[in-house]
Amino acid sequence: MIHRLTDRLAFPDPLTSNEPHIIAVGGDLGVERLVLAYRSGLFPWILHGDQIEWWCPDPRFVLFPENLYVTNSLARLIKSNRFSVTFNRDFPAVIENCRTVPRPNQPGTWIKKKVAQAFCDLHAAGHARSVEVWQDGELVGGLYGVMAGRCFCGESMFAKVSNASKVGFVTWVRHLQQEGCTLIDCQMPTDHLASFGAEPIPRKTFLKLLRLAGKG
Q1: pLDDT in tens, 54-103
Q2: Consecutive H or E run containing 17
Q3: Phi and psi dihedrals of 96, rounded to 5?
Q4: Do the strands 51-55 and 22-25 form a parallel or antiparallel pair, or are they unpaired?
Q5: What are the pLDDT digits (tens) for 96-129?
Q6: To 5 degrees, how large is the angle CA 64–CA 153–CA 163?
Q7: pTM of this prediction?
Q8: CA-based R_g, the chain, Å
Q9: Measured between alpha carbons, how far is 58 from 70 in angstroms, rounded to an integer?
Q10: Nearest-angstrom CA–CA distance, 142 and 169
Q11: 91-100 and 113-124 are packed helices; what angle lies between their axes, rounded to 10 degrees?
C-alpha cells in the first residue's frame, strides 16, 4: 500500500512496504522533510502532475567508492587538465542546467522550478552539494546530490561537452572517498553508472548501509 502523507513530518518505514518503488505520496519539499527523506532512504519525484512521489526502489542501484572503475582513456583525460572541477561554486547553475539541458530519449524533466528552488534551499542549509566542470571559463558539465551522513545521494548530472560529466563524477567520487564516504546512492539503474561500477543491491541491504553511514 502506498501511504498518503499528512502535514506531520514523518515517513512510513520502507521495510514495511511491499511496493517495489513508490512508498508514499504527498507532503511537501521543505528542507526538514527532504533531510528526513534522504536519511530514511527515500527521494522525491514529480512525474504525474504536481503530486510528489517518494521512492525507495527495490533493488537499489549504488556505487561503493572503492569499486569505482575508470577507463584508461578517461584517466588520461582527467590528467590532461582539459577540464577544471570545482565543488559547490555555483549550485543554482548546476541544477538549472540539469533541468534544462536536453537528454537523449528524455523529452522532459521532473526538475520543475519549484523542485530546483527546494534543492537550492537544501544547499543553503548545508545538505546538498554540487560539482561544476569548467572548460575555458564556461560551465560545461556538473552534477548535484544530497549528503546523508557518509552517503552521497546523487540526483542528476548534465554535460554540454563530451565527457565533461564523467570527469566531474570521477573527481567527486575520489574526493568523497577521501572524506570517508562509504556509499553513493545512484537510485535507479543506468548503463552509464554501471560502467563506473555501480550495482544493484536489495532495499533491505541499502537501508542497513544507509543507517551505518548516518552514524558517521
Answers
A1: 999 999 999 999 999 999 999 999 999 999 999 999 999 999 999 999 87
A2: none
A3: -65, -40
A4: antiparallel
A5: 999 999 876 655 578 999 999 999 999 999 999 9
A6: 75
A7: 0.95
A8: 17
A9: 27
A10: 8
A11: 160
